[in-house]
Amino acid sequence: MSEKLLQVKNLEIQYKTDLETVYAVNGISFALDKGETLGIVGETGAGKTTAALSILRLLPEKTARIPKGEILFRGENLLLKPEAEMRSTRGEQISMIFQDPMTSLNPILTVGDQIFEALAFHNDTGMTREQMEARVDETLELVGIPRSRKRDYPHQFSGGMKQRVVIAIALACEPELLIADEPTTALDVTIQAQVLAMMNDLKHKLNTAMILITHDLGIVAQTCDHVAVMYAGEFVEYGSVFDLFTADKHHPYTDGLFGSIPNLEVETDRLQPIDGLMPDPTDLPSGCKFSPRCPKCMDICTKQKPTTYQNGTHRIACHLYSGKEVEEA
Q1: All domains of the chain, ordered by start, with CATH?
Q2: Measuring CA to CA, which of 69, 203, 256, 301 is 20 to 30 A from 158?
């Protein structure tokens, strides 16, 4: 039986200022097994990055609030951990590849020194300097970079190679959970495919669980075991990748995302974008948050939050399927 590594329960996140409150994440729940990959997909502004940052407790202290929810890592609530313990957890047990990772590298340190720095900070096992240098070499070669380049600086690497260095830093301490926030957005298609294949290979070699944040369903199909479709801080659909790509029922927002993907087998003049914009997170609509943009909107959608249709592991929060194997969200 697989081991539950991470459990997020009914998580809510708000950003508060003197003038307004931003409702960024509104009651999401999911679980992640060891070695499993969960894809979180949605438009910009859906709350994906905020949810990811909350796992590492990297939300801005002055404005961010978590009024409700739990984040359990190996059964321990990370939200209750002292900051000193969280500093130890970050990088060693849970690592993150941030958006636009090419700007994450320090331009005045060699790439080898930056990997070494991560190892030295989490050196709980008493590794010698020689052992840590050997680990730097091993980690670089793991991501396809010759050890001879560890004395080079970031500006001497291409975009794809910088991405590999960032992944090497994240994996140096062999974390149990890797959070990748749109790690291939800044790369061209060919390099993107290489990096994704490498990450998938490393996941299997190290048995690392991964949360992959993206807006690209093609990446989800290649990489993930399960997928959560996020809209306005909520999961509107959740299930296995097989469920998402083969089920005959989908949330209208998921249908909209599929309609935005080019189909090379069908000749068409243009893609079908989702009409409208993401709602203002300081003033979210009543009922279903997607209702102002939904082509199948009914009167009840604007007044009442939908319950969740469930078929096995496949869940859809939509009034279209109300009364059919329904569970409360």
Answers
A1: 4-83+226-327 (3.40.50.300)
A2: 203
